[in-house]
């Protein structure tokens, strides 16, 4: 699980969603993120860990969490099946 707890995940999602509402784009493709797109649509919002937790990253470091589209994050995934789980930060 990328986040240590559901509470940490939910706080991170809200914090990063505020940045998206302020105009921050996807960290991979640079396109805007529509927070109304429901999970698990490819363009849905997820929170990406700049350094994956499986490689020593955490949920708190400056610049560690950033907004992404689900499909952009999946292309970068270090999971064997290339998926990004709902715990990665999808809203709703």
From TrEMBL:
GO function terms (MF aspect): endonuclease activity; nucleic acid binding; zinc ion binding
Pfam families: HNH
Key words of the record: Endonuclease, Hydrolase, Nuclease
Ranges for region Disordered: 46-92
HNH domain segment(s): 26-79
Protein name: HNH endonuclease
UniProt key word Nuclease: yes
Superkingdom in the source lineage: Bacteria
InterPro entries on file: HNH
């Amino acid at each position: 699980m990328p986040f240590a707890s559901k509470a940490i995940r939910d706080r991170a999602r809200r914090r990063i969603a505020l940045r998206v509402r302020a105009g921050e784009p996807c960290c991979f493709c640079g396109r805007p993120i529509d927070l109304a797109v429901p999970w698990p649509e490819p363009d849905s919002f997820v929170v990406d860990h700049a350094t994956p937790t499986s490689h020593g990253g955490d949920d708190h470091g400056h610049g560690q969490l950033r907004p992404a589209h689900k499909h952009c994050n999946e292309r970068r995934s270090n999971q064997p099946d290339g998926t990004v789980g709902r715990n990665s930060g999808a809203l709703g």
